[in-house]
Amino acid sequence: IGNTVLHILVLQPNKTFACHMYSLILSYDRSKEGPGSLELIPNNEGLTPFKLAGVEGNTVMFQYLMQKRKQNLWSFGPLTTVLYDITEIDSWAEDQSFLELIVSTKKREARQILDLTPVKELVSLKWNMYGRPYFCFLALFYILYMVCFTMCCVYRPLKPRTGNKTSSRDNTVYVQKMLQESYVAYEDELRLVGELITVIGAVVILVLEIPDILRVGAAKYFGQTILGGPFHIIVITYACMILVTMVMRLTSTTGEVVPMSFALVLGWCNVMYFARGFQMLGPFTIMIQKMIFGDLMRFCWLMAVVILGFASAFYIIFQTENPENLGQFYNYPMSLFTTFELFLTIIDGPANYDVDLPFMYSVVYFAFAIIAALLMLNLLIAMMGDTHWRVAHEQDELWRAQVVATTVMLERKLPRCLWPRSGICGREYGLGDRWYLRVEDRVDPNKHKMMRYTEAFKAQDRDNYDKGSEKLEINRDTPYKKELSALSLSRSTSRTSSHRGWEILRRNT
């Protein structure tokens, strides 16, 4: 019951009342240390009160709980060294990481905790010591891996075509080799080494991604932009395309160019994932993800309806015409593709002025130009501009969340020998087996002086306001006197408060 009340207090809107009641309940806890403590009992979602405060973005409760856990090591003048308990914060030995919970929650207030002590110092320590070097090495390794795969695709086994052309539009001159003919020469053996590296890399990608999908859940793993959800979809699809290409090569099945082309596009697009390691480029990946999976996905539904309607109209108009004179609409699939190019203004309006064009072509093309080029494309630009404006206002916050998510990901993937635990063990200071982070804080004495000056000004203004209110109540029956008194009161109040405030500043100086 006590643990349930603690979780309820974390969710209370009255933060001051919740903190006092939290301390009151813990004062009656007999087992304040060890696994039996009320603060260490998780709820049904596996969240302790401390983790729940982070997930809900309750910064007041989080700072209150951190103040309870800190240990003052020494103090000398304005310098103070504090040991912060990071047992639940550090993701090194936690199955359900506190940092991962913060970056995966949908509440923006939770990300503000990343800028608080000691979370900010812990993330900075992990990223600067291990995260950034490993991430840069991983980016370089992936780029070299993609170069190897690209070279294997460029020099894939082809042979000249021996059969006759089936139509005048047939333009094929090379065909795919059979498996027995693909690995004969020395150059083929070099390509085989690159293909083996590509396949092994695809298998490693699946082995690393599938456990995280099972642990976190597919909806949360692929749906969170901060965690790199769209990029996880891209890299898993890329690995599957590589395996499909391998099977088609081993079975001598024609058409391997289809999965190979998809793999090349997806593999090189995934390079943008590594832009999150740089503050200049990280927020732009967030913008691209939100535009593609937000604005563009909604816009594609409208675009598909317009393209289907006008492509069908163009095909019907040119169905009775000679396709050699205007070949952009010679069949229905080509009409769809041409209309798509016209929609995006990639090509100009197809017209052959050597022959008479149908009158309805001019009418339909006029309506299409108005709807597609003028209306819908400008609508898409406005939608993307709004998304850019919203993301730009929180780009620093989003980049910090990206860094935290990347740090947690690397910490889980790498062996323990390559990523030692951060912080100081409490046994060095006689504080048990808990782990602490040492933070040096500098207290500026001038800040406290200015706070006293501010309070003095506020107190004087409050007293003058109370006196003025009493005078206005007395002179309620005489409106003219009321206005004069209010005017003189405002002047005397500003003059008196300013004079007394400057006297305080002179004395203290």
Automatic annotation (TrEMBL):
The chain crosses the membrane at residues 134-158, 192-210, 231-251, 257-275, 296-318, 359-381. Its main location: membrane. Keywords: ANK repeat, Membrane, Metal-binding, Phosphoprotein, Repeat, Transmembrane, Transmembrane helix. It is a multi-pass membrane protein. The keyword Protein biosynthesis does not apply. The keyword Phosphoprotein applies. It comes from Sclerurus mexicanus. Gene3D superfamilies: Ankyrin repeat-containing domain. GO terms for biological process: calcium ion import across plasma membrane. This is TRPV5 protein. GO terms for cellular component: plasma membrane. The gene is Trpv5. Residues 135-394 form the Ion transport domain. GO terms for molecular function: calcium channel activity; metal ion binding. InterPro entries: Ankyrin_rpt-contain_sf, Ion_trans_dom, TRPV, TRPV5, TRPV5/TRPV6. It holds the Pfam family Ion_trans. It is found in: Membrane.
